[in-house]
Structures are given as structure tokens and as C-alpha cells.
Automatic annotation (TrEMBL):
Protein's organism: Bosea vaviloviae
Site (Important for catalytic activity): 218
Note on cofactor: Probably binds two magnesium or manganese ions per subunit.
Superkingdom in the source lineage: Bacteria
Gene3D superfamilies per the UniProt record, alphabetical: Endonuclease/exonuclease/phosphatase
Record-stated family: Belongs to the DNA repair enzymes AP/ExoA family.
Active-site residues (renumbered): 106, 147, 248
One Pfam match: Exo_endo_phos
Protein name: Exodeoxyribonuclease III
UniProt entry keywords in alphabetical sequence: Hydrolase, Magnesium, Manganese, Metal-binding
Positions of the record's site feature: Transition state stabilizer: 149
Biological process, per Gene Ontology: DNA repair
Length: 251
């Protein structure tokens, strides 16, 4: 099973990029973030033509998450992260595909930090950690994939000293990510490439892509039932260089 996560940064504007990558990479399951489209504007027909069933949780202009499955329909199990009935942002969706539970997430950015947005990010992270613990208690194969908006270590950022006070790299956020991992999750990329400098995001500004000034923000976490079955993990970097590309690459 080939599972990917991809912050598409506007699914309709970048649909040719998505369809081209799907045809080339042929992933079995894809978690998408930042759809930036309401539910009614999700391109389900185009994706179906490409061979993918889908569920989605859209939001006008912002956020939005979706799960695609090649040759089948994902079975939706949850829409929205539990723990806050007032949370109306489209940042989490969950589905069962071929006996695996897939959680697709888009964690808040949190900038500027400190501040209310950073506090909201930490609260969302705590809710995610609680829900992740409940998923592990089911003792079934689970994948939590998405844009975590977390740079876990100095190896995951091109110039760590420039990011010390950013909400993506502050100690509180890195600690929260490590707390999540300590439940028993496997960080698939880092597990297989413990010393490699790997990026999944390059800003549009200051020629970040051309300078390879990147960050690793997109993570695929595996439950213990899957961690031992991991055989490969990587980033389709070349997609970031395509015409009208997202600022993220598929993981």
C-alpha cells in the first residue's frame, strides 16, 4: 500500500498538478490539505475519472482536507477533530480504506507566536494527541498523515537559527510533536532516513525552491501495527518544481 500526504494549496487552481502527479505516482491513498474550496466545488468528478474515490471536508477560501483512494471509495468514520464543539474549521477527516484507518489533518500554523493563534495551535495539538491515543487503543492499523505545521528537529529546517521564534519551530510545538510520537507512533520518513536533511515545503518567496531553503512540515505517522511493515518513505520533490506547483511536495 502506497500512502501519501500532499498540501495542495488550492485544489482547483492546482488540479492539473494533482492529476499529473496521481497519474505518475499512482498512490493507493492520498491525504490532501488546504483545499481552499467549499464542499460543492470539490472536483470529485475529475478525480473519479482519474480512478480515485474521495471524501472531503471543505471550507471556502481556507483550510479543507480530503482522503482519496485508488479504485475504491473511502468509508468516512469521522469529520472534524473531537474535543471542541465550537471548532468550525475544516482541518480533520478520517476514513477506513482496506482495513486501515486513515486520519488526514491540517494543524493550525499558529503565527504570530506568542499570541492567541499560537495558543489555539497548542490546544488543537492537545486535542489531536488525545484522539490519537484513543485511536491507538483500538489496536487496529492507523495512519495519521498531513501538514502538521511542525518542524520536529534542526535537521528538518535549512537554517534553524532563523526559525527559533516561529510557531512552526518553537519548543512548545516540538515538544507536543514528540509527546504525540511517544504514544508509539512511527515518523515514517525519519525512521528510514534518521540523518538525512529532508524537506517537504519551500516558500514561494526569496527563491526558496531554487536555493533548497526548505522545511519538513508534512508527516506520515504509523501506529505500531504498521510501523514494522514500513519498507520505503520519501518525498516527490520534483513536483514542487512543476508549473503552478504547490509550495509543498507530496510525501
Amino acid at each position: 500500500m502506497k500512502v501519501a500526504t500532499f498540501n495542495i494549496n488550492g485544489i482547483n487552481g492546482r488540479l492539473p498538478v494533482l492529476l499529473g502527479w496521481l497519474a505518475e505516482a499512482q498512490p493507493d491513498i492520498v491525504c490532501l490539505q488546504e483545499l481552499k474550496a467549499p464542499d460543492r466545488r470539490f472536483p470529485a468528478a475529475e478525480l473519479e475519472k482519474a480512478g480515485y474515490g474521495a471524501i472531503w471536508h471543505g471550507q471556502k477560501s481556507w483550510n479543507g482536507v480530503a482522503i482519496l483512494a485508488r479504485g475504491r471509495e473511502p468509508i468516512e468514520t469521522r469529520r472534524g477533530l473531537p474535543g471542541d464543539p465550537d471548532d468550525v474549521q475544516s482541518r480533520y477527516i478520517e476514513a477506513a480504506v482496506d482495513g486501515v484507518l486513515i486520519g488526514c489533518l491540517y494543524l493550525p500554523n499558529g503565527n504570530p507566536a506568542p499570541g492567541s493563534k499560537f495558543d489555539d495551535k497548542l490546544r488543537w495539538f492537545r486535542r489531536l494527541t488525545k484522539h490519537a491515543s484513543e485511536l491507538l487503543a483500538l489496536e487496529v492499523p492507523v495512519i495519521l498523515a498531513g501538514d502538521y505545521n511542525v518542524i520536529p528537529t534542526e535537521l528538518d529546517v535549512y537554517k534553524p537559527e532563523r526559525w527559533r521564534d516561529d510557531a512552526l519551530f518553537r519548543p512548545e510545538v516540538r515538544d507536543a510533536f514528540q509527546t504525540l510520537l511517544s504514544q508509539g507512533w512511527t515518523d515514517s520518513l525519519r525512521s528510514l532516513h534518521p540523518q538525512d536533511r529532508i524537506y517537504t515545503f519551500w516558500d514561494y518567496l526569496r527563491d526558496a525552491w531554487g536555493r533548497d531553503a526548505g522545511l519538513r512540515l508534512d508527516h506520515v505517522l504509523l501506529s505500531p501495527q504498521l510501523g514494522g511493515r514500513l519498507i520505503a518513505a520519501g518525498v516527490d520533490r520534483e513536483v514542487r518544481g512543476w508549473d503552478k506547483a504547490s509550495d509543498h511536495a507530496p510525501v
